[in-house]
Specification:
- There is one protein chain.
- It is elongated, with a radius of gyration of 35 Å.
- It folds into 2 domains: 203 residues, no CATH class; 191 residues, no CATH class.
- It has 15 helices and 12 strands.
- With 438 residues, it is of the alpha+beta class.
- Its EC number is 3.6.3.-.
Length: 438
């Protein structure tokens, strides 16, 4: 049986070699389709990987623990207090850090609405008491001066956001100048660059305008302003007693986010009598990236599949022409005893050789997507450095093994499907009519 199969393939190969140009053009469509599947999926995987890495940096591995003001019940002491006490405690931060070894860092912060003054100018800003890591967490950049450092703890220094600095110092460099925060003077040591508003990204839970902030050391806020504050903005006076507004917990692996969030919820539940906190997991960012990648890959496979379909139609067209040209040969084989299945096997072997050969060459070229993509990028850059957008320079194709198997399967399947009709047409010929064919 194996000998018969090999002999059929050998006969099919000889038949194809008699029409090299025609066979090559027929296999070219399968070659292009197979290579396209691997290339498009590899580039799509590269784009998806870059997007997921950026999403991870934006906060997919962060757990945001935030103070939430409870809804007054109307009959308790809390509702009658002028300064309601609620939210996260410094002890909560210590418990999280000391009891959960799988976290990479925990960043506390306290924010209040506060008025900053310089001579006759003022700005209602969000005063943020934070630590050194707050800069990297929220992807802020320093435009002038420097950021807060651990040695500033307890000192009256402030870093102004872009819009806040321009309101207080419209024509001056604010570095080294003094700003009134309440009854205390603070020295400006830095100014951050403009930044777009963000929602649930990095260390931000709400839609935040970082350009209107002012940043002081968390320890400075505790010592000089305290937990009990009364603010007046737009004629409204609000008081509260809150130690920490938020703790952003970063874990080492995305897979442990849900587990760590559950542990944090259990810890806080033991020491809080009221629901004055919220644990938020922004991992939906990563899930959305996964869904986008799946849809993107499906679209690419459909586009490449169309190329394979066109290649298959080309093979069927070639094989139909071959059947017509070899009608007399088919009649002779039938006359000397060849059965219909022998004719079908002969023509199917030829189509499989065409599609399989084109598919294998397409796989080999598809596996070269990385070097060829880099070479093309270098050539384009050498001709015009600004022609390609920055994202193209960051993309590195990532070959997906499933795309290789899928492309080979589709190419062989295409050859088989589109070769059945010509093979059956050849097998169903009447031997007498075939021998008379000129």
């Amino acid at each position: 049986m194996n000998f018969y199969f090999l002999r059929t393939l050998k006969l099919g190969l000889k038949s194809l070699l008699l029409q090299r140009m025609r066979a090559g053009l027929a296999a070219l469509g399968i070659f292009i389709g197979t290579m396209t599947v691997i290339w498009l999926v590899a580039i799509g995987e590269g784009v998806s990987y870059q997007a997921q890495q950026q999403i991870l940096e934006l906060g997919a591995k962060n757990i945001i623990v935030r103070s939430v003001k409870p809804v007054p019940s109307g009959d308790g002491e809390q509702s009658n207090s002028r300064f309601p006490k609620y939210g996260l405690l410094r002890e909560d931060y210590e418990r999280i850090v000391s009891n959960i070894p799988s976290i990479s860092r925990a960043i506390p912060m306290r924010e209040i609405v506060y008025e900053l003054r310089v001579e006759d100018r003022n700005a209602d800003s969000k005063l943020v008491g934070c630590v050194f890591d707050y800069l990297e967490l929220n992807r802020l950049q320093v435009a002038r001066g420097r950021w807060l450092s651990p040695r500033d703890d307890g000192s009256k220094v402030v870093v102004l956001a872009d819009e806040t600095a321009k309101k207080l110092f419209p024509y001056q460099d604010p570095i080294g100048k003094s700003v009134w925060l309440g009854d205390d003077l603070y020295v400006v040591i830095g100014q951050t660059q403009p930044r777009d508003a963000a929602a649930a990204i990095g260390g931000s839970l709400d839609a935040r305008d970082f350009n209107r902030d002012a940043y002081i050391p968390l320890e400075t806020l505790r010592i000089h302003i305290g937990d009990q504050v009364m603010t007046q903005v737009g004629g409204n006076r609000q008081g509260e007693i809150v130690q920490l507004s938020q703790i952003t917990v970063a874990v080492r692996s995305v897979e442990t986010v849900d587990e760590v969030a559950s542990i944090i919820s259990s810890l806080l539940q033991r020491f809080h009598e009221q629901d004055d906190y919220a644990v938020v997991v922004p991992k939906e960012l990563l899930r959305q990236a996964e869904r986008t990648r799946a849809m993107f890959n499906a679209l690419l496979v459909v586009i490449a599949g169309i190329s394979l379909l066109v290649g298959g139609i080309g093979i069927m067209n070639i094989m139909l022409a071959t059947v017509t040209e070899r009608t007399r040969e088919i009649g002779i084989r039938r006359a000397i005893g060849a059965k219909r299945r022998d004719i079908i096997q002969q023509f199917l072997s030829e189509t499989l050789l065409l599609s399989g050969g084109g598919g294998l060459l397409g796989v080999l070229c598809g596996l070269m997507v990385g070097p060829l993509f880099s070479l093309t990028r270098q050539l384009v850059t050498s001709v015009s450095p600004d022609l390609l957008p920055p994202i193209v320079h960051a993309i590195e194709p990532r070959i997906a093994l499933w795309s290789v198997g899928l492309s080979v399967f589709i190419s062989l399947g295409t050859g088989l499907i589109f070769g059945v009709y010509p093979a059956r047409k050849a097998a169903m010929m009447n031997p007498i009519d075939a021998l008379r064919h000129e």
